[in-house]
Write a structure and sequence with these properties.
CATH architecture of the largest domain in chain A: 3-Layer(aba) Sandwich
Largest sheet of chain A: 6 strands, mixed
CATH superfamily of the largest domain in chain A: P-loop containing nucleotide triphosphate hydrolases
Mean pLDDT of chain A: 89
Radius of gyration of chain B: 26 Å
Oligomer: heterodimer
Number of strands of chain B: 2
CATH architecture of chain B: Orthogonal Bundle
Strand content of chain B: under 5%
Strand content of chain A: 35-45%
Radius of gyration of chain A: 25 Å
CATH topology of the largest domain in chain A: Rossmann fold
Number of domains of chain B: 1
Helix content of chain B: over 70%
CATH topology of chain B: MetI-like fold
CATH class of chain B: Mainly Alpha
CATH superfamily of chain B: MetI-like
CATH class of the largest domain in chain A: Alpha Beta
Strand order of the largest sheet of chain B: 1-2
Structural class of chain B: mainly alpha
Shape of chain A: elongated
Number of domains of chain A: 2
Chain lengths: ~375, ~290
Amino acid sequence: MGTSAGSHSNSLVYLESVSKIYPTTAGEFYAVQNVTLEVKPGEFFSLLGSSGSGKTTTLRLIGGFEIPEYGQVFIGGEDVTEHPPYRRDVHTVFQSYALFPHLTVAENIAYPLRIAGLSRSNIAPRVQEALRMFRIPELGDRRPSQLSGGQQQRVALARALISRPKVLLLDEPLSALDAKIREEVRQELRELQRQTNLTFIYVTHDQEEALALSDRIAVMHQGRVEQIGTPEDIYTRPESLFVAQFIGKANFLTGQVMQLDAEMAIVMVNGIAVKAVAPKQVPSPGDWVTLMIRPERLQVGQSVKADNQVTGKTASVTYIGQRIESNVDTSLGQLTVTQLGGSATMGQEDVTLTWTAHDCIVIPSPPSSPVSSV
Amino acid sequence: MSSLSSSLTKRRSRFPVGLYASLLPPLVWMTLLYFVPIALLVSYSVWRLEAFDIVQEFTLKNFQTIVFSSAYRTVIVRTIGTALGVTLIDVAIALPLGYFITRYGGRYRPLLTILVILPLWSSYLVRVFAWKIILGYNGVLNTALLSLGVLQQPSQIFLYNQFSTTLTFVHIWLPFMILPVITAFERLPKDLIEASADLNAPPWTTFRRVMLPLVTPGILAGSINVFSLTMGDFITPSLVGSPSGIMLGNVISSQFGVSYNWPLGAAFSLVVMLIVFSGLAIVVRQGALENL
């Protein structure tokens, strides 16, 4: 058992301030910088970020394909920082699936069992069971080159899961599939994780995918973890401007903190006092902060429950099927409002927008230049 | 009106004159320099020599001579044995070399690959002679062993025997083995090797179960190169080999030269071709041509 893993005894995967550095002509490049995160048993954990954010490198550090320059990697409480991949109880579903082209589907799935030294008579029924479970029983004798993308993905999953590893790493497993079967496979993946109760660590650049699948998400940016939380945390209570901008659409307002207590903050924006939820990292009065309001949290028309109210004129209306998106010019700046269903009732007339303090999030560091919307 | 009707009529597919015209030069080249000589070779092999004159009558006498002469049978067996041995040794050298160059070569990989093929830029004769200089009575090896005190006087065991022939063949044909093997290693997707390690296979198991099967076409392609080059060679055995260790190439060259028996030489050439083509057929069935 690792020494510093004691305090994280219920974590299955624990990264302690790991950094991965690549030398470049200009000096050093931190692909992953000082990342600390823990994944609990049975969790569906996503690493979300755009390309170059370090999410895949983080996954490769867990898989053992990269060794960090700083920090430690624990799996099941054991320090595996310098263990090669073949000595880690972690299997990977590669973005390319990496199926062995010279082996049949059944032989591919049997591979980890053969490596583990199981006899052929023990392997065959388990492979058959896996083929049935992934609903590809007729494909056992095919070669990977004869399979569709979706079928290859099932084989890759079956191969990675057959020896029941502690952790399954998935590197953008849906990115090679076309949009139609993507959503279908996404559902299956979630069900599979619930049924098997295995721990999944899932790398994706697709925020919708991460929100729909994960128990918890780590949003990564420039090699660092910006925020770790449940999908709801990440969406409704972003802790940094990056997370707020990266996930979904939002209105951003810049203002100065006037008044503050444990729960509430009053922020002056263009001379208007706006009530908002105080952030975890409490700013002090006089600090410049950014306020974030999701477009669907703005109500059109008067409301008694609302803490904030502003009037404005509709600048433009966009009809997007199930929702309508309007831009409203107010004294706070232009605000984007999303309404579900109905018809575009807002013309050029004056509109009143209201929202609760609960839906208005204070984000500490203000941007260098004021951001108005989306 | 006319544009409408033309859009409704199916465009007639034209005979691709340009395509066939462009195939003409290589076709002429192949016919003159390949098919015609082979046809001549086949005709000569079924003619016979009578009092230094070639008699153009059909006979299988040349082939009978080859099959029923024990001396010629020995030469055939020795040639095939040497060619197989050289091929196996080159495989044994090229496999680890290809593995290490592609896996650990890093940014020196192109340089290392060039070093492997560099000998090909020097003359074949120079490379064979180099071994004569190294292995000879007053050669580099003997001089070194003398000065180290290992030998009291120069030894003759290094040169003019089966060992020196094999060694020279192994060296001069090695690039023809290494190139396809390195290419095969380079084409090996990195994620397959990672996937194998990920599924808990230690490096040697990954090599045996994933890398080796996938570089086999490259090994077979290289083997055909080395095998056929050795089968047809007559210079190396005559320069560094033993006088009693002649190979099929020497027999053919002497039949077309001093012995002046072109029909028998032609028959021998066909025997060599038959052996090489049988080897090729075996290898092609394993899918080696994809890597040639």
